[in-house]
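FORM 12-B: Structure-to-Sequence Request
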């Protein structure tokens, strides 16, 4: 693959991708090369600095994967049963790494926040109001609906 800088008679600059120089000439002859902006078939290669300097070097850019193909990242969103499994895993991890303080969650979270209790991950039950109050005090909590059989 080679890439040519091309110019149409309306002075639009664009790039053309061709298999090789011969393919470019052939496509140009058959008027298969046209400007993407105005559809003009009066297209010519833009003389490159290298050609102007007198070198008989084809001013082409090899379309190597490293320079022309930007890696795209794909975010995968788990759906359905897989998501449920992941979620249960997350819950399991939280459950096994935290101390269950039950209904005194809000009190305990506050104590930890104000250094009146040892720093540790805790879990427990709290009402919406308690959660709101904790957040208002700047206490970072995460409320998660725990699947039934984890209770
Ligand atoms: Zn054009």
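FORM 12-B RESPONSE
SEQUENCE OUT:
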């Amino acid at each position: 693959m080679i890439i040519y800088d091309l110019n149409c008679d309306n002075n639009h600059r664009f790039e053309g991708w061709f298999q090789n120089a011969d393919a470019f000439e052939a496509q140009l002859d058959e008027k298969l090369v046209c400007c993407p902006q105005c559809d003009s078939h009066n297209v010519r290669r833009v003389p490159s600095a290298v050609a102007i300097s007198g070198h008989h070097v084809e001013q082409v850019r090899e379309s190597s994967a490293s320079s022309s193909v930007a890696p795209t990242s794909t975010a995968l969103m788990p759906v359905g049963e897989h998501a449920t499994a992941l979620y249960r895993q997350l819950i399991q991890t939280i459950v096994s790494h935290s101390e269950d303080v039950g209904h005194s969650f809000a009190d305990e979270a506050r104590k930890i926040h104000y250094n009146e209790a040892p720093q540790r991950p805790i879990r427990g039950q709290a009402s919406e109001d308690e959660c709101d109050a904790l957040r208002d005090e700047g206490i970072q909590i995460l409320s998660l609906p725990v699947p039934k059989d984890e209770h």
